[in-house]
Amino acid sequence: MKRLFAALAVLTLASCVAPVGPVEVTRFHVPELAGLGRGVIAIEPAAGQDGNSLEFGSYAGAVSRQLSLLGYSAASGAGSSPQVAVLRIERRSFRPERARGPVSVGVGGSTGTYGSGVGLGIGLDLSGPPPALVETLLGVTIRDRASGKALWEGKASFTVRAASPLATTQLGAAKLAEALFKGFPGSSGETIQVQ
Asked: Among 2, 63, 65, 128, which has the highest number of CB atoms less than 10 A from its own CB?
């Protein structure tokens, strides 16, 4: 009986996890990479971002984990690190355009020994308009604090239906951060898809 309850608990938790993917990632960096991936770094919100929100905290935590895996150490106080990771989170809603109109007309004809014929067919697409989508973007810029120079910049984004739990929550934070820093620093200017 205990095994049955354990199995049900695992299945219930597994069904709560919404899949994310593919994640589109683009990165840019300076040619000299000597200072990247080591030292002390702080995570700060970009202009216009609420650094005290729960959402920002989730994304900052996910980015911090990835930076520590790269070899960075977290800064102990504000303004005390030589490098700073400036974090921005954006969401935008849109409705994709229908690929073709809801009505299509086809004409066909044939000829043979017993005469000829012409046919006309009309097709109606009753599926309704395409569903609304939400794109979530995570952007990180690693800057040298003293000069303000951007050393590395990347953005990762995924798109889901507006009805998905991932459309309005930070459930995808870990996946976006992991995809963004995969193969760090990455090829400058290249856009890749991470599953």
From this structure: 63
